[in-house]
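Title: Prediction job returns without error message
Component: structure pipeline
Severity: low
Priority: P3
Assignee: unassigned

Description:
Job completed but the reporter wants confirmation the result is attached to the right record. Sequence as submitted:
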Amino acid sequence: MSRKLVILFATFALLTTAGAVQASYEVECEGYNDDTSAYVSGTCTDGEFDGTDSETGEHVYGDCEFDGDLDGYDSDTGEHVSGECEGE
């Protein structure tokens, strides 16, 4: 009976740890408009970028990665935005 409890506890601990790895995240990102070179900053939340173009004030949206790349677009012009996101 003790061995079954140990196995059950170990399984529960493993599943709990695996769930924590998949937790939500929010990190800061920065990049530049590929056409105008305008600085862009914003937040990456669970893979979705939401930011602002520093020159025009236009909304920038796109995909992003925790401790990885920012791949966005200017909502007004459609111009591509490249950058990176922190992973702390």
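Comment from assignee: result matches the submitted record. The chain has one helix and six strands.
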